[in-house]
Amino acid sequence: MQVLRLLSWWWYLTTQIVIGSWNVAVAAWRPKPMAGPAIVEYPMRATTDFEIAMFASAITITPGTLVLGVCPGDETRGPSVFVHSLFDSERASVIDGLAELEWHLLHALRRHGMPKGER
């Protein structure tokens, strides 16, 4: 079952890379900007170093997004990541996209998956 979740993750990430590449190509040829950039802090559900590294890599490999830094967190707050989004100035939309990306990753990596609604 975990193999299917890993294949699903691979397909999801590949789709996001293709969509991001298309958006960057369209933006390069448009005379007017598509949208304004935004920087957001996203509190992660990822907890292990491997999960955090995979999440940060997935964000950075997707065209139009870039990880600026990772905050390890402490006893009261978990880790968070700072992300620059090139095409989406709506911070809520960026956070929703990051939550979906993280869910797909954690669902694939964790032994028993991850419930869809867990935040």
TrEMBL record:
Main location class: membrane
Record has Secreted as a keyword: no
Coiled-coil regions listed in the entry: none
Pfam families: MNHE (PF01899)
Protein's membrane topology: Multi-pass membrane protein
Subcellular location: Cell membrane
GO cellular component: plasma membrane
Keyword set, alphabetical order: Cell membrane, Membrane, Transmembrane, Transmembrane helix
GO MF annotation terms: monoatomic cation transmembrane transporter activity
Transmembrane domains' residue ranges: 6-29
Domain of life (superkingdom): Bacteria
Family of the protein in this entry: Belongs to the CPA3 antiporters (TC 2.A.63) subunit E family.
Protein name, as recorded: Na+/H+ antiporter subunit E
Annotated source species: Arachnia propionica
